[in-house]
Design brief:
By secondary structure, the chain is of the alpha+beta class. The chain has 2 domains: 138 residues, Thermophilic metalloprotease (M29) (Thermophilic metalloprotease-like, 3-Layer(aba) Sandwich), CATH 3.40.1830.10; 193 residues, no CATH class. It has 12 helices and 19 strands. The strands form 4 sheets. Strands 13-12-9-6-5-17-18-19 form an 8-stranded antiparallel beta sheet. Strands 7-8-14-15-16 form a 5-stranded antiparallel beta sheet, covered by helices on one side. A 4-stranded parallel beta sheet has the order 2-1-3-4, with helices on both faces. Strand 5 and strand 6 form a beta hairpin. Helix 8 packs across helix 9.
């Protein structure tokens, strides 16, 4: 018997998150491991009148390119991929990795070359999304690899994933709409602030946010979701921040990251593990040393750290910042081939100030006007 939560996930993704309309070209991207969800989503897209197109990623090809490709091949971007980004109405990505550490021994410099070459794909996707021409969504199909990364059995991890998306509730879409209204109100309130200051163990960071837009994320670009984010003023970030959670990125795990900023730029960076990779990413391009995003995680259905950014950055009581590219809809102007989210836990011993007034303590916003 099919898990009813799978059917709910496909329904929410198609009819709530992506809001598929008749005639939409809907690109579905996954590995073969996500076949049950891809099939169910495909059926829902058809029922909504859309035109589903499936792209299946084969395990091992990314490693093959990084191991055996020459510089020209590493820098090549498929014209078919460009066309798809240009003409799709909806793009849905189902994370479904065979091995979350498959690129752990890849050369960071070669990874950086690939990332720089594909920057124009990400730029165009962000541009079309900001213009309302493309809806995109990243979600996840629970795999043994992801469960193992989280330190859970597959059944336990499935429960975690479905609970995080409110799929254990009778009407998940209604729950997301209600949650979204609360996020909208908070984003509107934060939109009046000129400066934020974050204080915690190893952290004392100031960010200018005046004139920037806060975006409430309630399940339309990520699923599960539950954050509010903005693009800080590019030259305004000053101070230091210590990230309490490890970061999974580029097939690696980087631990104990600490950054110090002056006039918006990283001037010191260290990590207990993965420091060489951190430095390679910071050197990727001129924008990689600046902050493209700052956000509060607000999904209280996610409490566990699982070494997957899709979930970890939404944990209620956390904040994260992304080095690199800004989202245009926030007013952020930083450009980069990098967008790397780093998460820190504020649930114990923290305060956040807005224009000098404490508005957040120990992972919770205080009573706001």
């Amino acid at each position: 018997m099919a898990d009813p939560r799978l059917e709910r996930l496909a329904d929410v993704v198609v009819n709530y998150s992506a809001a598929v309309q008749p005639g939409d070209l809907v690109v579905l991207e996954a590995t073969p491991l996500a076949a049950p969800l891809v099939r169910e989503t495909y059926r829902r897209v058809l029922a909504a009148g859309g035109h589903p197109e499936v792209r299946i990623a084969v395990d091992g090809v990314a490693e093959a390119l990084l191991d055996d490709g020459n510089d020209a091949q590493l820098g090549w971007v498929s014209p078919a991929r460009i066309e798809q980004i240009e003409h799709a109405d909806v793009r849905i990505v189902f994370e479904s990795e065979y091995n979350t550490r498959s690129l752990s021994d890849a050369d960071p410099a070669r990874q950086a070359l690939v990332r720089r070459a594909r920057k124009r794909l990400g730029d165009r996707l962000f541009e079309r999304a900001a213009a309302g021409e493309l809806r995109w969504l990243v979600t996840l199909w629970p795999t043994q690899a992801a469960a193992q990364e989280a330190g859970m059995s597959l059944g336990e991890y499935e429960d975690f994933v479905f609970r995080a998306g409110f799929l254990d509730r009778d009407d998940p879409a209604a729950a997301w709409r209600e949650f979204g209204e609360r996020l909208d109100g908070l984003a509107e309130w934060l939109g009046r602030a000129r400066e934020l200051r974050v204080v915690a163990d190893g952290t004392d960071l100031r960010l200018g946010v005046g004139g920037r837009t806060w975006v409430a994320s309630s399940g339309h670009e990520n699923f599960p979701d539950g954050e509010i984010f903005t693009g800080p003023v590019e030259t305004s970030v000053n101070g230091e921040i210590a990230f309490s959670f490890p970061a999974a990125f580029g097939g690696r795990v980087i631990e104990g990251v600490r950054l110090r900023f002056e006039a918006g730029e990283v001037v010191e960076a260290s990590a207990r593990r993965g420091g060489d990779f951190l430095q390679e990413m910071l050197a990727l391009d001129d924008g990689a040393r600046r902050v493209g995003e700052f956000a509060f995680g607000l999904n209280d259905a996610i409490t566990e750290f699982t070494l997957n950014t899709l979930f970890d950055e939404k944990i209620g009581g956390t904040v994260h910042l992304a080095l690199g590219k800004s989202y245009p809809e926030t007013g952020g102007q930083n450009t980069s081939a990098l967008h790397w989210d780093l998460v820190t836990d504020l649930r114990v011993g923290s305060e956040v100030y807005a224009d000098g007034e404490v508005v957040y303590r120990d992972g919770r916003f205080l009573d706001l006007p």
